[in-house]
Design goal:
alpha+beta; five-stranded mixed β-sheet
């Protein structure tokens, strides 16, 4: 990360409602999907339950009072062995703070969280054409080409 900035990375706790709101806004802006992240936000009780849930992990990167990056992940306990995997569901950095090592720092932190929890791997998916994400993940891990299917619940 740039040495002229003091970026703090930390895990959100159940009382971090305002920071969670800022994280949601940052995700919406970074992904160009503000309506998805802002129009039907969960109520504070839901957010507190989510942040208390040990399988959900939310990390924020802050520059002073501003949330400039974040990561949402899930710990998935495995059934075939006594271990778990960490799935990065969302990872974004505000446009104003990109290419400063924040995404890499967030991944380093989720790896540390995973190690503390006894996980054996962190995995993430990237969309075809998302060159910055693919380049980042290629530097940090081994690429697997897989197919992803969404199966609707209400078929």
């Amino acid at each position: 990360m740039n040495s002229d900035r003091s970026i703090e990375i930390r895990e959100l706790e159940p009382g971090d409602l305002k920071t969670f709101e800022a994280l949601m806004s940052m995700f919406g802006a970074a992904f160009g999907e503000s309506e998805i992240y802002t129009e039907s936000r969960p109520n504070p009780g839901y957010v507190q339950r989510l942040l208390r849930n040990e399988s959900f992990i939310a990390l924020v990167a802050s520059d002073g009072d501003d949330v400039v990056g974040g990561l949402a992940a899930y710990e998935l306990p495995k059934f075939e062995q006594a271990r778990s995997e960490i799935y990065i569901y969302d990872l974004a950095v505000a446009e104003s703070h990109r290419r400063q090592g924040i995404a890499t720092a967030l991944i380093r932190r989720i790896k540390a969280v995973g190690a503390d929890r006894g996980a054996w791997v962190v995995f993430v998916q990237a969309d075809r054409g998302d060159t910055p994400a693919i380049e980042l993940y290629s530097k940090l891990g081994v690429r697997e080409d897989v197919l992803h299917f969404d199966i609707a619940i209400d078929e």
